């Protein structure tokens, strides 16, 4: 579990007692020497009530076209677009939500993939008050003077750089995204990672895609990726180390429980709800930390560099990254 020590000034991401920290600016009392060139994402909602849950308006490209489209938005509402928009005509690409601040789903869901209520209950995060218990412990790691107020809480599937799915608790605050690895069986917080919103330079949303010569089975669903690498790729050592903790991006998809028909309208497991809330939060963070700059929002396939990884197939098909009751054996 992360301890309470202050984050020391550094030029690269650091790990302290299970806590992964993305460096901050001098004004945040923790510094990052190499500043990126980002952008301000302008999101407006004229009918927004500050007392309500954050409302979001899509500020990226739209349309029912194909291929990939890249958009950058700023306070003057200027757009730099390239290529047609991402098609929404995909099976299961629209799901509802009880949240008044939600919009229709922007990422596709797995076609004909259904988790019955019996299967959903095998997830320990779905049992009793386990998720609320996890949230209470995760909230204790939030630093109000650094992170600000909590804006939203989700249970999502993270896809790491080795294409392995893992169950993660995600908190969105006014200034950061915190991602927690929590054991729902032993109710133990293993580690967490903090990424400052104004350090993110690109947000990608779309269907997951493998390289052309990959033999990996098609994922047939989409997700969201947050990047702070300024277009640079990880080193050879980072890419081929499955335990590397400083990969400069985070990739999320819907939690499997969302495929339970009873939970189709629950925002907790929906990565699109996280995406919409993130857009609004990062807009405000940029206004304060990077006024006049731009953030890039990309709609299109999200590349997963995996070619022939049998271990990944076994890991994902068996749900090893999720804490479940497996016929009396829990792990």
Automatic annotation (TrEMBL):
Domain HSac2: from-to ranges: 125-304
Pfam family, one: hSac2
Highest taxon of source: Eukaryota
Gene Ontology annotations for the cellular component aspect, listed alphabetically: cytoplasm
Low complexity compositional bias, start-end: 64-76, 97-108
Region called Disordered, residue ranges: 1-109
Family: Belongs to the TPRG1 family.
Protein name: HSac2 domain-containing protein
UniProt source species: Patella caerulea (Rayed Mediterranean limpet)
């Amino acid at each position: 579990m992360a301890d309470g020590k202050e984050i020391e000034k550094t030029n690269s991401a650091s790990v302290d007692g299970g806590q992964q920290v993305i460096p901050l600016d001098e004004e945040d009392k923790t510094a990052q020497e190499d500043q990126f060139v980002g952008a301000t994402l302008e999101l407006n909602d004229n009918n927004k009530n500050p007392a309500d849950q954050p409302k979001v308006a899509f500020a990226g490209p739209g349309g029912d076209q194909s291929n990939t489209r890249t958009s950058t938005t700023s306070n003057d509402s200027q757009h730099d677009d390239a290529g047609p928009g991402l098609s929404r005509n995909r099976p299961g690409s629209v799901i509802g939500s009880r949240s008044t601040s939600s919009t229709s789903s922007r990422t596709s869901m797995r076609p004909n993939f259904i988790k019955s209520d019996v299967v959903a209950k095998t997830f320990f995060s779905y049992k009793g008050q386990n998720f609320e218990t996890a949230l209470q412990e995760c909230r204790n790691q939030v630093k109000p003077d650094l992170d600000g107020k909590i804006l939203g809480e989700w249970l999502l599937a993270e896809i790491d750089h080795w294409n392995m799915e893992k169950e993660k608790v995600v908190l969105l605050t006014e200034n950061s995204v915190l991602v927690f690895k929590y054991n729902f069986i032993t109710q133990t917080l293993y580690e967490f990672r903090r990424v400052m919103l104004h350090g993110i330079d690109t947000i990608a949303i779309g269907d997951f895609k493998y390289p052309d010569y990959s033999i990996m089975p098609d994922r047939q669903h989409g997700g969201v990726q947050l990047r702070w690498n300024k277009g640079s790729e990880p080193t050879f050592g980072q890419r081929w180390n499955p335990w590397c903790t400083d990969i400069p991006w985070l990739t999320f998809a819907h939690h499997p429980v969302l495929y339970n028909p009873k939970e189709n309208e629950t925002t907790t497991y929906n990565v699109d709800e996280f995406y919409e809330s993130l857009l609004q939060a990062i807009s405000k963070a940029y206004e304060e930390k990077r006024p006049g700059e731009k953030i890039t929002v990309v709609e299109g396939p999200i590349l997963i560099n995996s070619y022939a990884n049998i271990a990944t197939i076994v890991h994902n098909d068996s749900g090893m990254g999720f804490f479940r009751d497996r016929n009396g054996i829990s792990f």
